[in-house]
């Protein structure tokens, strides 16, 4: 390293030198030893700042500019005293700005002062007045630039759990004694506008220790928040991770459930289940106890997009809907959108269930498990690279045969059932700007209701996600996912009719999305998605050489679905937030395949076929698509009281085919094609949201109206499976749903929980000039899952730190059914005359569950922490009807009722965590 000093003072000072990976301290000391200038600086941290620079005959101030260009340091030369001051972040002011000292009794008349009012004054910071109770030291952000002084700067970063390495979503970051706040997104990212100079950030989230961070803003910059887990006892049934989110966000109809929130809610057979918890929230229900699938705001079960780590899971439930197919110990939680859907989601009319698996512990081996009367469960978190990556492994199995034998149904006494699911998740923090996650999941159910048939169905999926920061203002996520769902029936009868039957649907999706903080008021979300479907509509094959069954195989279906989306979260003011987006959806049904074209103006049946069209491989059969709007707005009357409104419309190109009263595991999915149009729908929502007592209490009242077109139903006695021309059995009509949802919640304290009430209607109409395509004379009629009144009460009372009791009460209007209303005789045979479809209702449903929760001692150093749940499901023994059906005996029609759990079901589950 060499330096040449030529002259200074009134003459030009030229410097030459070669610095290679030299610390700032050594550079300054070298300059000082070669010149008559004295350098003043704090040595702390300078050894970490390295400089590589080659200069020749340059002025000293130019050299200093280059040396400090990529650092957070500035300099100031006091010429008359031959002194150079090196300052971190800030700049030295040798004069105060005009108007700094104002006379408050006089009006400001100097227009030059007004012109300078946008430039912030110098930051005066007194170490002695700092708050002392701080968890972290003061942080200085950015480097002051005299040519770009602004009153506000942007702080960006990511909230990270310091123990697990997981991102912390829905974390509230507030400016202390100010109005500014921001909520981290699903990946923990945030961006907030802060005043120039000193700020205190208050950071809060459920399960995270409350934290205050001091920052001095000199310019735009980054700060990742490394947060500790809260040591306080968590409230067991808090649904949302942050209680203020319901007031502050622009979303309508959105809910969050943490997996921990379900551990104290008494559910059937003691199994923790976030989807069952979801049914206790307003606007979400099912067709009946033990029914697979959820109905959201009057929509059908196939109108819900259920995602597990960005990949679709078609049947997220085991054992006829009694258990969820998600491991509760590897599941972090679920975000539910039943009103305003984010612009990136589409393909379904009613809702999105975005289920996330938690990241593993990157510090040490951890695990959690349970042993119950039906299931055994174990999950492990294994560090791979310390503080960088980990692997989550979860496995779960059932020994459920005794349940079927205990049900009030003699035909099930010899039945058997079992299921299992497994999950792997790997996550790796490559560096501060890149993170990779990969998830693999598989589940399988097998059950035999009769002695000659074995039913099975399975889900498998894989997803790969790469999250990346591209500069201070843009984050990206690249996602690749594959999902497969299939079922089969193996029939082994006494006659020569043995067969094997199967069905499967497979989809592969690629999504690339961006989030950009355009400025302090606009945040853009935009991207592209593409999906490929491959459907095996079903096949049947003889099982064995002696079987008389003929082989039938329906032609494979395939299609492409894509979307472009753009949204803008626009902060009009501190009170008014507008979230506007547009999504263009596109769908193309592809060959090879055969389609029937039917005569116009006539019903679709074999006699009205006009021609048969044959399509080659990858030839486009039919295209559909159009724009989808995403609009939501929030206005804050006060920081804890807001009004929200939203509107969105959607296309759905995928349908389920089922003529059962409720969805079953062997329902098939059908792609839109030449004869079956996509479903379309829109929804408008309006709601009021109010929190009390620092978000301890929460109230919301929300109303909605939903319109739907081309919804599917089927002709009476329709033959759907293995039907080459299934469109001849399909009816497409219109639907409408409307309702009011009320939620009252207590988030903290020894007594906590919530009360939800929903009044809703779900109606459909199928009208045609032809009687065979008309239902109920073309009038609106209640859907199978229309339940006008729905009440849920969830409570938990903590007696001591180890003991608590909980209760779950549910009341629902009985669902609609079709009753026989008379008999008639024709050609010497008796026939039954039925009412209009769904004209009557089964008895109302209500159920009370109770639970006692016992935690192990709270010693810090022990092998494992335990948790025991003793619960009784349906403690009143209510014989709630699952369905009502009719048989004819000796010429008399008799009504029979079937129930799932007609007696109290006790259970005890042991949970452990280490």
TrEMBL record:
Annotated PROSITE patterns: TONB_DEPENDENT_REC_3
Domain of life: Bacteria
Localization, UniProt: Cell outer membrane
Primary localisation category: membrane
UniProtKB keywords: Cell outer membrane, Membrane, Receptor, TonB box, Transmembrane, Transmembrane beta strand, Transport
InterPro entries for this protein: Beta-barrel_TonB, Beta-barrel_TonB_sf, CarboxyPept-like_regulatory, Plug_dom, Plug_dom_sf, TonB-dep_rcpt-like
Location of the TonB-dependent receptor plug domain: 270-348
A UniProt-annotated Pfam family: TonB_dep_Rec_b-barrel
Any one of the GO CC terms: cell outer membrane
Positions of region (Disordered): 104-127
Entries under Gene3D superfamilies matching the protein: Carboxypeptidase-like, regulatory domain, TonB-dependent receptor, beta-barrel domain, TonB-dependent receptor, plug domain
Membrane topology term: Multi-pass membrane protein
Keyword Membrane part of the UniProt annotation: yes
Domain TonB-dependent receptor-like beta-barrel, residue spans: 419-874
Family to which the UniProt record says this protein belongs: Belongs to the TonB-dependent receptor family.
Protein name: TonB-dependent receptor
């Amino acid at each position: 390293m060499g330096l040449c000093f030529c002259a200074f003072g009134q003459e030009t000072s030229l410097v030459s030198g070669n610095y290679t990976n030299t610390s700032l301290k050594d550079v300054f000391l070298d300059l000082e030893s070669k010149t008559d200038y004295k350098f003043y600086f704090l040595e702390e941290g300078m050894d970490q700042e390295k400089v590589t620079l080659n200069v020749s005959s340059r002025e000293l101030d130019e050299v200093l500019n280059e040396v400090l260009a990529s650092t957070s340091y500035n300099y100031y030369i006091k010429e008359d005293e031959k002194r150079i001051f090196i300052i971190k972040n800030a700049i030295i002011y040798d004069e105060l700005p005009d108007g700094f000292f104002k006379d408050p009794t006089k009006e400001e008349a100097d227009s030059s002062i007004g012109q300078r009012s946008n430039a912030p004054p110098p930051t005066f910071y007194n170490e002695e007045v700092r708050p002392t109770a701080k968890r972290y030291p003061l942080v200085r952000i950015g480097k002051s630039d005299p040519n770009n002084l602004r009153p506000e700067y942007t702080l960006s970063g990511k909230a990270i759990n310091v123990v697990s390495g997981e991102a912390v979503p829905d974390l509230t970051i507030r400016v202390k004694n100010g109005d500014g706040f921001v909520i981290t997104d699903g990946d923990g990212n945030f961006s907030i506008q802060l005043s120039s100079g000193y700020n205190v950030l208050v950071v809060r989230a459920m399960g995270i220790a409350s934290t205050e961070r001091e920052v001095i803003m000199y310019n735009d910059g980054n700060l990742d928040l490394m947060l500790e887990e809260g040591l306080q006892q968590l409230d067991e049934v808090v649904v949302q991770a942050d209680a203020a989110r319901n007031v502050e966000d622009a979303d309508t109809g959105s809910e969050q459930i943490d997996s921990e929130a379900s551990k104290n809610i008494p559910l059937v057979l003691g199994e923790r289940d976030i989807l069952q918890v979801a049914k206790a929230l307003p606007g979400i229900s099912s067709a009946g106890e033990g029914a697979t699938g959820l109905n959201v705001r009057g929509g059908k079960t196939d109108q819900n997009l259920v995602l597990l780590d960005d990949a679709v899971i078609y049947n997220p439930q085991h054992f006829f809907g009694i258990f969820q197919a998600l491991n509760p110990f590897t599941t972090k939680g679920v975000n539910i959108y039943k009103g305003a859907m984010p612009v990136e989601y589409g393909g379904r009319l009613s809702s999105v269930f975005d289920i996330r698996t938690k990241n593993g512990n990157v510090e040490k081996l951890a695990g959690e498990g349970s042993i119950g009367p039906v299931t055994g469960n174990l999950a492990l978190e294994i560090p791979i690279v310390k503080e960088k990556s980990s692997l989550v492994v979860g496995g779960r199995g059932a020994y459920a045969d005794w349940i079927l034998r205990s049900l009030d149904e003699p035909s099930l006494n010899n039945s058997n059932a079992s299921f299992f699911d497994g999950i792997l998740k790997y996550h790796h923090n490559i560096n501060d700007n890149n993170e990779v996650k990969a998830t693999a999941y598989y589940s399988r159910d097998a059950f035999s209701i009769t002695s000659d048939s074995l039913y099975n169905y399975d889900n498998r999926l894989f997803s790969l996600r790469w999250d990346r920061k591209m500069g201070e203002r843009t984050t990206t996520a690249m996602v690749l996912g594959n999902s497969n769902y299939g079922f089969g029936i193996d029939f082994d009868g006494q006659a020569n009719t043995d067969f094997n039957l199967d069905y499967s649907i497979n989809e592969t999706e690629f999504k690339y999305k961006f989030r950009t903080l355009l400025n302090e008021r606009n945040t853009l979300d935009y991207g592209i998605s593409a999906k490929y479907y491959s459907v095996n509509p079903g096949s049947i094959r003889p099982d064995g050489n002696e079987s008389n069954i003929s082989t039938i195989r329906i032609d494979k279906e395939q299609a492409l679905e894509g979307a472009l989306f753009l949204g803008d979260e626009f902060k009009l003011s501190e009170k008014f937030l507008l979230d506007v987006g547009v999504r263009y959806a596109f769908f193309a049904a592809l060959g090879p395949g055969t389609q029937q074209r039917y005569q116009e103006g006539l019903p679709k049946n074999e006699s009205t076929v006009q021609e048969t069209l044959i399509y080659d491989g990858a030839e486009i059969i039919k295209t559909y698509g159009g724009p989808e709007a995403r609009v939501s707005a929030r206005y804050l009357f006060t920081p804890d009281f807001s009004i929200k409104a939203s509107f969105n419309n959607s296309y759905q190109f995928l349908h389920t085919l089922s003529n059962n009263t409720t969805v079953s595991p062997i329902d098939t999915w059908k792609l839109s094609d030449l004869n079956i149009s996509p479903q379309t729908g829109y929804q408008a929502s309006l709601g009021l949201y109010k929190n009390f007592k620092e978000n301890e209490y929460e109230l919301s009242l929300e109303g909605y109206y939903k319109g739907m077109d081309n919804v599917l139903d089927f002709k009476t006695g329709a033959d759907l499976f293995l039907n080459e021309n299934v469109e001849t059995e399909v009816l497409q009509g219109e639907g409408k749903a409307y309702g009011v949802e009320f939620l009252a919640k207590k988030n903290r304290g020894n007594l906590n929980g919530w009360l939800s009430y929903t009044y809703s209607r779900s109606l459909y109409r199928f009208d045609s000039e032809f009687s065979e395509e008309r239902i109920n004379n073309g009038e609106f009629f209640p859907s199978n899952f229309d339940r006008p009144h729905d009440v849920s009460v969830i409570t938990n009372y903590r007696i001591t730190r180890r003991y608590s009791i909980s209760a779950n009460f549910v009341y629902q209007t009985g669902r609609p059914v079709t009753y026989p209303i008379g008999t008639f005789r024709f050609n010497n045979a008796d026939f039954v005359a039925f009412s209009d479809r769904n004209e009557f209702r089964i008895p109302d449903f209500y159920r009370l569950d109770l639970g006692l929760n016992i935690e192990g001692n709270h010693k810090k150093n022990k092998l494992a922490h335990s948790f025991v749940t003793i619960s009784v499901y349906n403690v009143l023994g209510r014989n709630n009807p699952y369905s009502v059906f009719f048989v004819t005996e000796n010429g008399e029609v008799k009504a029979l009722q079937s129930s799932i759990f007609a007696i109290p079901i006790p259970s005890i589950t042991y949970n452990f965590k280490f």
